[in-house]
Design brief:
Two copies of one chain form a homodimer. Chain A is of the alpha/beta class. Chain A has helices at about 5-10, 15-20, 40-45, 50-55, 55-70, 85-90, 110-115, 120-125, 125-140, 150-160, 170-175, 180-205, 220-225, 230-235, 255-260, 275-280, 295, 300-315, 335-350, and strands at about 75, 95, 100-105, 145-150, 205-210, 245, 265, 285-290, 320-325. The first copy, chain A, has a single domain (about 5-330, about 340-350), classed as TIM Barrel (Alpha-Beta Barrel). The first copy, chain A, contains 19 helices and nine strands. The first copy, chain A, is globular, with a radius of gyration of 19 Å.
Chain lengths: ~350, ~350
């Protein structure tokens, strides 16, 4: 990357917001912006399975770039899945129709943790780094690219449950019953996640997002005891100066603890009000938090709600607009484009503080 | 009921806690205390389906009384289901193996709301009142009996989704898109719930609990707009002096609004810390909030955590000990009995404030 290209990136609205610097407008991207709701994505997926798409750098780059350009968002996020890291660890991952991800050798006994391999992402996850390299070349020079990984708790939860779950009872029972094995599992996952994110940054990602999607099933004290030190350790190991976005769902009670764990920007889901949530998070930016369901209701309703999110952010530097959860498959893509335009126009017009 | 019987009930530790009066020990009961984890329950269920059990007063009374006596808890809760109210409304309810409740004629269009019937519980839900009457006769005179219903939001969510859901997207989309039909649905449900709970109280319940199990999927502002007035209206319509427990899951961000909606006791789930949650709830008691997963981990671990819940409650009048969610099917019943004994002994020994 040339110096002018780096300058263009660093002075983008998105990177400014990550650093909590005033920006000319509120940057926006959309959780799961390359996904089933978009015809261009469905066309590619008609040819390959979900996991094949993740593992074919040319195709992953294509859907990443197409989504970012089609929507006119302020950042691209590399197309991948939070669970690809589990395979080199030794987990048998499959994406089944309807049921979503399944881990065939779910972790239920401490001995299974010992048997998990240490992950060297350069050997096993090169396809992601290649996809990032290709994407970076195809993206406009000023458009930041976000790398990401599942956070250790969420990865552990999938590995123990063998898939998704409502309450993650097995995960918590394992954590309570086998604290030593839990720490070992979290340690292995944390080392893997840190190396994986470092590799994504080296490959060309300007920002990384940690998805601790399911950590909201824990109480604050359990979070602090069983999760926080591991997440902290990952963030400490990343290259200095690269912004980290730290996100989970149902984490309204955990926000202060997640901020303590680390991250320059805390991702807010749709269960919280942006203003009161941000008030609890001194010294960091926030990302969010329009409910994706509003985009199903009607465009008018979604934009009205988007306006309220912008009002709650009050033009304070450090707000990245996003949904509070991934865009839903039945969402009209035109509603999402209208949202992006609305956020840009409305926030540029408002007086910036 | 004779006067001495009424006195015995009213001076029980449970009723005292409902009124936030000092009690000799912390009363405890267990969400879903009559359930699959208990052999006596499984024996009855081997003979009849779940819905038949709900609709056979003798059997419903039997499992209610057996569970309360077996555990030594301080209150019985009538065996039933939060969804039985949906049938007389016109919904086709089935409990399928594995999948849980299914509503075959899920509500997706406003016209379907118009077609729902107004419910007269004395005609359609007499089996619940009969079960309460029978149970009241079989219970010790000093043991309070809790009646209950699903709250309107949770009933609406089941009716619209056609069953359970992770995020209740269809429910929220309906609510956002058809605010008029939503208000009509909530109105019908609220009138039905109020009449149903009044009937349960008349039949012999000393306390009622409103289960707004899924309302945690809403943001505080949506809760206030779409739910709070309806829940308030129900509570206003109940007989004065009968304590109301108001409970939901994942409601950490909604506690103040739920308190505003009403209830003498707010039920806390396992996502919150009891002390900080109660500090946000002036003027009411709290019920909760041991994580049911702890009872799977080990008895020792569960009791350690139960001790912490008691410490967080600090002996303040108005605490009813409970789990933060229903007891899990694979829980050893002896662990639950040990929990009940522990709570009684530990709280009786502590200095009460």
């Amino acid at each position: 990357m040339t110096h002018p290209e780096k300058d263009a990136l660093n002075s983008s609205a998105f990177m400014k917001a990550c650093r909590r610097e005033p920006a000319p407008y509120t940057p926006i991207w959309v959780l799961r912006q390359a996904g089933r709701y978009m015809a261009e994505y469905r066309e590619v997926r008609a040819k390959v399975s979900f996991l094949e798409l993740c593992k074919t750098p040319e195709l992953a780059a294509e859907v990443t770039v197409t989504a970012a350009k089609r929507l006119g968002v302020d950042a691209a996020i590399i197309f991948s899945d939070i669970l690809v890291l589990l395979e080199p660890l030794g987990m048998e991952l499959e994406f089944t129709k309807g049921e979503g991800p399944v881990l065939h050798n779910a972790l239920r006994e401490p001995a299974q943790i010992d048997a998990l391999r240490e992950v060297d992402p350069s050997e096993s996850l090169g396809f992601v780094f290649d996809a990032i390299g290709l994407t970076r070349k195809e993206l406009p020079a000023s458009l930041p690219l976000i790398g990401f990984s599942g956070a250790p708790f969420t990865l552990a939860a999938y590995a123990i449950e063998g898939g998704s779950s409502r309450n993650f009872d097995l995960t918590k029972a394992f954590m309570y019953r086998h604290p030593g094995a839990w720490a070992e599992l979290m340690g292995k996952l944390s080392r893997a996640v840190a190396a994986y994110l470092r590799g994504q940054i080296d490959a060309g990602a300007q920002v990384v997002q940690l998805f601790d999607s399911w950590v909201g099933c824990l109480s604050p004290s359990d979070y602090r005891r069983y999760v926080l030190p591991h997440t902290s350790e990952i963030i400490r190991r990343l290259q200095p100066g690269v912004p980290v976005i730290h996100f989970g769902v149902g984490t309204g009670m955990l926000l202060e603890a997640m901020r303590e764990a680390g991250g320059d920007v805390i991702g807010l889901d749709f269960h919280v009000e942006l203003d009161s949530a941000w008030a609890r998070l001194e010294g960091v930016g926030v990302q969010g938090n329009l409910d994706p369901v509003t985009l199903l209701a009607s465009r008018e309703f979604a934009l009205e709600r988007a306006g309220r999110v912008l009002e709650q952010a009050a033009g304070k530097p450090g707000h990245i607009f996003n949904l509070g959860h991934g865009v839903l498959p039945s969402t009209p893509v035109d509603n999402v484009i209208a949202l992006v335009d609305f956020v840009h126009e409305r926030s540029a017009r408002s007086e910036r503080r």
